[in-house]
Amino acid sequence: MAKPRFQRSIRFSESEWNAVCEAAEERNMKPAEFVREAAASVAAREIDLDDGKLTPALIEMIERTFRGVHLLAYLKHEELAALGRQEDFRRATEGGQIAQAETLDREEADQET
Fold first, then answer.
1. Do the domain assignments include residue 2?
2. Which of 11, 27, 98, 101 has the smallest number of Cβ neighbours within 10 A?
3. Do 19 and 40 lie in a common domain?
4. Distance CA 113, CA 108 (A)
5. Where are the alpha helices (DSSP H) in the chain?
6. How many domains does the chain have?
7. Are residues 59 and 104 in the same domain?
8. Are residues 96 and 109 in the same domain?
């Protein structure tokens, strides 16, 4: 689940805000979304996270993907339970957990090299 966001207040001059709005519009983004992504990207570079492995945009994409997969899994679980096929769901879940563990182990090994 995505971490909760809290409203913050940042002051901009009229010309700065106009520049933000223009840049956001060019990217089909809302100004707040643009400012958040730009600030997070700069912060990630400052702490050496923006090396192609994990960027704020990638984190957001992972969170959205997780929420979608969670919803689909819940719906499939309900469908299979209604058909008395809970064991099929359990086996599929177990297989997914094994694949996830293998992927995370591989990622850790890649980071160590």
1. no
2. 11
3. yes
4. 9
5. 14-26, 31-46, 56-82, 86-112
6. 2
7. yes
8. yes
How far apart CA 113 and CA 109 sit, in angstroms, is: 7
Asked whether 10 and 35 are in contact (CB, 8 A), the reply is yes
Same domain, 100 and 68: yes
- Is residue 6 situated within a structural domain? no
52: left (phi > 0), else alpha (psi -120 to 50), else beta? left
Question: Is residue 85 a contact partner of residue 92, using CB atoms and an 8 Å limit?
Answer: no
Cα separation, 113 vs 103, whole angstroms: 16
Considering only CA atoms, give the Rg of the chain: 20
Please write the tens of the pLDDT for every residue from 59-75: 777 788 888 888 888 88
Residue 45 has pLDDT above 70, yes or no: no
Instruction: Tell me: do 104 and 73 sit in the same domain.
Output: yes
Domain carrying residue 88: 52-113
Give domain status of residue 7, yes or no. no
Q: How many CB atoms lie within 10 A of CB 34?
A: 19
Note the pTM of the prediction, 2 decimals: 0.40
- Tell me the residue type at 46: E
